[in-house]
Amino acid sequence: THIRLVLFDMDSSDEEVEEDETEWKSSFVDPAPLSPSLHKTSGPTPAHKVILHLDLDCFYAQVEMIRNPTLRDVPLGIQQKNIIVTCNYVARQQGLTKLMFVTDAMEKCPQLVLVKGEDLTHYREMSYKVTELLMSYCPLVERLGFDENFMDITELVDRRLAQTPDSNNFSFKGHVYNHLWVGHQTAKRLQALGVVSIQDLQLFPLNELVREFGSPSAQRLKNLAAGVDDSPVTPTGAPQSLSDEDSFKKMSSTKDVLEKIQELLSSLVERMNKDGRQPQTFRLTIRRYSATNKWFSRESRQCPDPQPHRTEDHLCDDAVVQLVPLAMKLFQKMVDSNTTFHLTLINVCFSNLQTRGAAISGKGSITSFFTHSATSPRKTQVCSSSQTLHGFKWKQSSVVAVEDPLLQTADCSTARSDPDETNNAVTHQLPPNVDPEVFKLLPEDIQKELLSPAYVNSLPSTSTSPSAPAVVPDVPHMTKNKSPHSFTSSKNIEDFKEALNKSDLSDRETTERTSWKTGDRPSPWSSDCEFPGNVDPEVFSELPPDVQRELMSEWKQQKPVLKIPSSRKPGRSLTTKDRKAAGKGSQANSLLKYFKPS
DNA sequence: AAGCAATAG
DNA sequence: GGTTCTATTGCTT
């Protein structure tokens, strides 16, 4: 409960993450008490982390209850095909459970109200809203599925403790893992070794475990059995793939397959459009009926996505038209349409999602035209909340990207490859213009001040671009000749370069007289900004819509930044999901309270 | 890079 | 007896 105090006193906004009736679970890597001091003066600081695990209960049901408040008081089930995938607590009181068949459910609870939940759009959107809300407090948020988030709040806690008199007298308790946190297959292998309980695993000789699972996995199993999990919370960022699928009892004609693919692609292409990135890979997956292996075993074929650009809305249908033959080609690689076949599922997927800029600029992205240089300051708070792309706002995401996205990337990768470097937790958040080496030499209180979100948010807003409006105007229709920067049909990136690459000089002046003042924004991180600060909204608004979309997407992606796909850590098998072990069966984390009662 | 298995909610 | 709709990671080729 001390953790709750620490977290929830953070600000006084009524958009509070959670309160009374909710039971929070926190897990500690290190059973040792938290050190109240953030900055070590000498010797090694004991490793400690405070990680929140937030699990939203009956998530789909809650979303539907928000959409339609009359559903709050009735037993509600979310139906996908023949099953109730989740249900609200009223329904659970009548004995309903997850993944129950509709027929059984109706028998148990004749008054059950069903809402179709096969289309995940609303769930997906609400899911990201929750993640964004959490990220407004602290960027280290890792998603697991649509309804769970892990949040590393170590720094928030440490900072709070450092500011709290008498915090020495606080005590903390860790949560002890006590559930099944291995999957089915692994459990079977363990069982074959005679390991069925946590204690079995604790007592089982490591070397025999290594023989079965290999060294890294074995070590990890052992650690988890001891309640030790030092895996970092890795910010999830934007998804790495978008897919759409449908299952059915039987599909056996090529015509039906084609129609289904068309249907799936229509919605997937639309989603891809909103995202703004360009998929480099397209994949088709099927599941065939077979008496033995009924519901597992999917087969897939994938290929490079040849489409150059189809981000314009009116090209959406074209895109589908182009992709359907491609999909059918992949389909024929798996299924001989001369023989009979029996499919029970089709999935289409875009992956290898790239921003347009990434392919063009060696520096990494088109964003480099907006960000002046690694050491330049950025304007803050130039933004409004009215900028909505396709109805899905990622409003707070870029806020937390207090640093140049490129810099952030570098810092994150450093942190990942260097897990023992305790200072990384601190330095990865350094304000721009601050050399980490120099930073370490500064007096403690100065360091603290530099790290406070208030400071970071107050960074050189000192109007380097006086003409920039305080609010982003609504994106106008493209007016060809009116504006000083008019973009015609040519979408060459060079066209944008000049217009966007504005006054470096004035910015550099600001850089040199770096102001160390502390701002007084009441709510750290939670401003309403949507662009990186140094983007001129006027110029932005004149970009072609698809380019705007891509940029938004890119910023969205790069916010606190994210997994670096290529830099895998070797030899980690059972990964961060293991953390999930803790905290099952907590009380309702009700979303409802954030919405006006009916 | 492709295909797939395992795992998760 | 039936087994949804995603998404990620890692192994293998």
Automatic annotation (TrEMBL):
Keywords: DNA synthesis, Transferase. InterPro entries: DNA/RNA_pol_sf, DNA_pol_Y-fam_lit_finger_sf, DNA_pol_Y-fam_little_finger, HUWE1/Rev1_UBM, UmuC. Pfam families: IMS, IMS_C, UBM. GO terms for biological process: DNA repair; translesion synthesis. Residues 233-242 have a biased composition (Polar residues). It comes from the Eukaryota. Residues 51-154 form the UmuC domain. Residues 227-248, 499-541, 554-598 are annotated as: Disordered. Residues 499-520 have a biased composition (Basic and acidic residues). GO terms for molecular function: damaged DNA binding; DNA-directed DNA polymerase activity. This is Polymerase (DNA directed) iota. The lineage of its organism: Eukaryota, Metazoa, Chordata, Craniata, Vertebrata.
